[in-house]
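Let's practice the habit of predicting before peeking. Look at the sequence and jot down your guess about where helices and strands might fall. Then scroll down.
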Amino acid sequence: MINTKIYKAVYHLSEQLMEAANKDDRETFDALYKELHALCIEHEDTPKDHPEQWETLADFTEELVDALVIYAKALKKAEKINSKDHLSSIAFSMAQLQVECGQKYAAIKSLESAKVSANKIEDKELKEEIADMLATLSPDPEE
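Done guessing? Here is the structure:
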């Protein structure tokens, strides 16, 4: 479980990042992103480390390749604590970026992993999104 103080800080920063992005306020966005990054680094490999802070950082990382690296780190941290919710959401986010990067087969692999993890979660909407995306990417067996 994520430390309450860190959760609140990450949540607050994500709200502020969204607000700055919506206003096209680059200076504020960059400062807030650095603050979120520093929070992640500060707690990395401590008992306060949690995949949610890394997933949030990846969500706001603009360079797709960099975001994929951060999602991979978040995924390892989710595996370590066996958090099915985080495993499925992170793998789904990775798949979306992999599609954008033209990495179709990597995206399929991520989605298959997300689907397995999603079997143990309650978020029906995420389960449907995973299944829908997997269906659009998977090759038609009759082709």
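How did you do? The helical segments are 4-22, 26-43, 51-59, 64-81, 84-100, 104-118, 124-137.
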